[in-house]
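COURSE: Structural Biology Practicum
ASSIGNMENT: Worksheet 4, Part C
STUDENT ID: 0417
INSTRUCTIONS: Below are two proteins. For each, the amino acid sequence is given first, followed by its structure token string. Answer the questions at the end about the second protein only.

PROTEIN I
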Amino acid sequence: MTANLTDKNALQVCFADVEAAAKRLQGKAFKTPVLTSHTVNKQTHSQVFFKCENFQRTGSFKFRGACNALMQLSETEKLNGVVTFSSGNHAQAIALAAATVPKLFCTIALAIPAKISPPKLRENNT
């Protein structure tokens, strides 16, 4: 999947795109809760909703995007493989998505910085 960043229409997303992504992610991504807080609502004089993606696989929303993107790769793109440079959530999301997508048959290379904080080196139990 490649995006032509000079084409203003190339990155437009419509509701049908969101529905298609949700269908692709069924059984792969967790359904995370939407919560509210009486305290926050009172302090902001409004009703605030929190989409709790910290409960998602790998602890962030990035798994949804990574999995959805990998599932849409063409056969040629799969042959080229996927490379990502990250020391955090994105690298974890790509790695887990690659392991989750059946019949992906794609080389995934995770480039991680030489200097990385110890908490990011922890084993991810997702």
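PROTEIN II
(use this one for the questions)
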Amino acid sequence: MRRFGARTPVPHSGVATAWSRGGYEHAPAYGISRAGRYGCCVRVACRPWEAALAGPGGIRARNRAEDSAAVRRARTVIEATLPLRRNDRLVMVVGSYGSGKTEVSVNLALRAAAAGRTVQIADLDLVNPYFRCREARRLMEAHGVRVVVPPGALAWADLPIVVPQVLGMLSPPAGTLSLFDVGGDDVGARVLGSLRAGVLAAGYELWQVINPQRPFTRDADGCLAMREAIEGSSRLSVTGLAVNAHLMDETTPDTVLRGLDVARDVARRTGLPIRFVAVMDRLADDPRIRTVGVPVLVMQRRMLPPWRLPAGEKRLPAGRPVPLGRRNGVHGTHRD
């Protein structure tokens, strides 16, 4: 949590703006302000219908924004589109390499936070040092999401570190969502085997992300083989399917629908439910997407390579590793 100075406006362009007073600021999402210590103007990117919820000039909260009727109504709308049940408290996201698990996890965390839930996410990708949800740590923390990763420079070390706080996430209190972004394939899911006793005691959801555009999950047989490998490695059972068929910027509605067809074949052969179809916001209003008959998770592109980040945006937090011979600060880390 951070305190902001008195009423410092932030330039914006085509985004909703929200003034807030009272309490501490937990940088709002989707046009919903959650309160600022001294009152501040917060820039929030949102979809057009979410901007409409904010109204002209944003939601003007009085006292505590959480108690605002406008905020409650907006959260109700977002909650209705959220592909989560109220009793989904521990959700683990698995799948093949490149299926989009991290993009799904980050967007799901942000949407749940926007709906008013307390959200915590653990980066359990221990096998791939690239495109991990810790890269969006600043973004998620700005929206009130607790991000559990190794401290300091260890967050960027290519080491299989599981911090003790992960154990505390296995039994979240009522109203809190624990999300685990797990590494790819059966190799990445192996870390869940070490948590199996606590996971079984708490009850869980294990969602397999399906993307038929990946080489080993092009059809239902490949997806079933991946599921079997993940279950064998994690010693846990997959409980649901999440469709994230994509070709990055080349994704079309046909790409999404083909992925849904493959997922339906998997669901028919396993009895597993399709929890949602994930689509980028530019495709969400396509009539074919709006009538798919399953919940839709509307996403924004959050996991970007460095050369596509907006000007001035930093993803690496303070404490990132620096080359030998150029060290300063504590434990050889660079301080931004």
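ANSWER KEY EXCERPT:
Q1: The longest strand covers residues 118-124.
Q2: The mean pLDDT is 77.
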